[in-house]
């Protein structure tokens, strides 16, 4: 699709109080010049679940991005991407499939590597969570 069409669509959506357009961070080795001090490590976490009840619902997808950030909050570089599915042991509710786009076939037999999750989170001084 023509980039100008996408930009115009984003502009129109942003003018509405009902929408906010997020832009993909471009892939690059470094986002800023070499820092004067050591960057800190942060993790952005996104979770999809079968619902909102902690007693009966389960995580079906865990995605994380680890990054280095500078003292002024600017991202210095992306360190790692993590995205895994988890089989809840029962068919996904239709509403969850429609909301997330995740299907039974995508989660079937899958588990999240808890050791990898711990390794990524243990290094972080800040965790930004979504959902």
Structure overview:
A hairpin with a 5-residue loop joins strand 2 and strand 3 (75-85). The chain has 131 residues and is an alpha+beta fold. It has four helices and four strands; from the N terminus they run αβββαααβ. 24% of the residues lie in helices and 28% in strands. The model has no long low-confidence stretch (mean pLDDT 90). The radius of gyration is 18 Å and the shape is globular.
Write out key terms for the chains shown.
alpha+beta; 24% helix; 4 helices; 131 residues; globular; four-stranded mixed beta sheet; single chain; 4 strands
SSE layout and pairing:
Elements lengths: L2 H12 L25 E10 L9 E11 L5 E11 L8 H7 L3 H4 L6 H9 L3 E5 L1
Parallel strand pairs: 1-4
Antiparallel strand pairs: 1-2, 2-3
What is the structure about, briefly put?
The protein has 131 residues and is of the alpha+beta class.
Mean pLDDT: 90
Beta strands, count: 4
C-alpha termini separation:
30 Å
Q: With helices defined by DSSP (H or I, 4 residues minimum), what is the helix count?
A: 4
- Rg, Å, rounded: 18 Å
Helix content range: 10-25%
What proportion of the residues form beta strands (DSSP E)?
25-35%
Spatial strand arrangement across the major sheet: 3-2-1-4
Task: Characterize the overall form.
Answer: globular
Order of helices and strands: HEEEHHHE
* Residue windows where pLDDT falls under 50 for at least 5 positions: none
Structural class: alpha+beta
The major β-sheet equals: 4 strands, mixed
């Amino acid at each position: 699709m023509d980039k100008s069409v996408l930009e115009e669509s984003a502009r129109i959506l942003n003018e509405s109080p009902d929408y906010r357009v997020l832009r993909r961070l471009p892939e690059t080795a470094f986002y800023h010049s070499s820092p004067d001090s050591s960057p800190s490590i942060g993790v952005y976490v996104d979770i999809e679940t079968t619902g909102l009840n902690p007693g009966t619902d389960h995580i079906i997808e865990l995605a994380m991005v680890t990054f280095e950030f500078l003292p002024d909050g600017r991202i210095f570089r992306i360190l790692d991407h993590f995205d895994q599915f988890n089989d809840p042991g029962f068919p996904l509710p239709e509403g969850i499939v429609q909301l997330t786009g995740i299907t039974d076939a995508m989660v079937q037999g899958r588990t999240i590597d808890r050791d990898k999750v711990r390794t990524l989170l243990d290094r972080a001084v800040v965790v930004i969570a979504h959902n």
